Structure formats: structure tokens, C-alpha cells
Amino acid sequence: MINIQHVSYAYHKKKVLDDISLSVEANERCALVGRNGAGKSTMIHVMLGLLPMQKGSITLGGISNRKQEWKRIVSYLPEKFHLYPHLTGEENMRFFASLSTKKIDEESIAEKLKMVSLYEARGEQITRYSKGMLQRLGLAVMLYYDSDIIILDEPTSGLDPMGREEILQIIKSLDNKTILMASHHLSEIEKVCTHVAYLDNGKMTKYPVDEFIRHHLKEESV
User: Fold this and answer.
1) Spatial contact of 179 and 150, defined as CB atoms under 8 Å apart
2) Burial group, residue 135, by CB count within 10 angstroms (0-12, 13-18, 19+)
3) Using one digit for the tens of pLDDT, what is the confidence trace for 138-155?
4) Residues of the chain under the 70 pLDDT cut
5) At a CB cut-off of 8 Å and minimum separation 6, what does 114 contact?
């Protein structure tokens, strides 16, 4: 579903991605892992065309990311998702739904709000929402599009333990979705992911999640 081949990217001659390749198969939940500044967000931005690809090729669901058609099958939740504070949770959902189709699916909006436990708070202005509620609302907006490929950039960033657990349970419950999730929490990765793509010094290595956890813990114990 996600196929990255020999991609490189440099900022001012400093190479951040160095000839990396990665394949994420259908229905895999793959964590994108690396130290701060390793290039996780850069890789996501290159995938989504937010940064120009300097070298290599990327396909999403078999479609080159140089074309526009891939946007029909991919949803992206950035670390900081910009919602509209003067609107209610439900009104935010309607606004973002209107960007994808002329006819808004009210049943789907209700379903997604229930999925993220915000249905009862749907009529409240989101200035009253906690950070965890806002993150769940962003996730609901993304899930409304029902895309085959979901890309998440630090979806639990800044949340308390309960808020993190709520987000993780929602991600884990998603069926028939291919997920690439940037994270630096090993406990989160172990709970929800099937594989890990480890970015280090510009190079990429993919592991089954159990193998990565064992390898990482062994390194930490040395």
C-alpha cells in the first residue's frame, strides 16, 4: 500500500533521508520511529508532497505521489491539527466533511463522533474541549473520509496517560486500514503496531514490532 524507493532529502546540503526504502503492506500498522530530529516528519511531508521529492519514488495505494489521485485514498492527521474554535465539535465535522463531498453524510458524522466518544459533547463549542478531546475530534475528522491509508504524526503528543490510551484504543480498533504512525513511545508502539520502521542517521530499517522491542531493549541494557 505504501511503497518508498530510494528516497533522499537534504536541507541545505545536510542529508536527512539517505536513499531510504520502505514497504508497508495492506492492513499493517507500522510505527515510524527515530530520535528527535531523525527526519520522521520530513519523511511524512515528502510522502504527502508537502516537501518536494529530491530523489526516488513513492507510491500510495499503487498511485505515484506526484499525481493528485492518491489523495482519494489517504488521510493525514498532523501533530497539530487546526480546528475552528468558534464552532462546535459537530460543526467542525460538517465543515471538514464539506471539503470532500458536496453531500454531507450525517450518519457517518454521528458514527465517527461516537467512535471517539464525543457524541455527547458534539454540541459544545470546542474552546471547552480538553486537549485529548480536541485530538479525538481531529481523529474523527480524518476517519470520516474512510481512507484506505492513514498517516498519523505523533497522534498522542502532549496528552496525559488517559488521553493517550483513548487514542491508542481507537487506532487499534481500526480494521482493514494501512497505518503509518510516527511515535517515540515504545509502550504505544507495542500496543498497537505490527511493524516498526526505524529511521537512524538517514537510513531506514523495518522490523516486526516484537523484534524491534527486543533489539531496542538489548541496546539499552548495554
Assistant:
1) yes
2) buried
3) 999 999 998 999 999 988
4) 102, 217-222
5) none
Alpha carbon distances (Å) from 137 to 1, 5, 51, 79? 26, 34, 26, 13
Count CB atoms within 10 A of the CB of residue 71: 17
> pTM of this prediction?
0.88
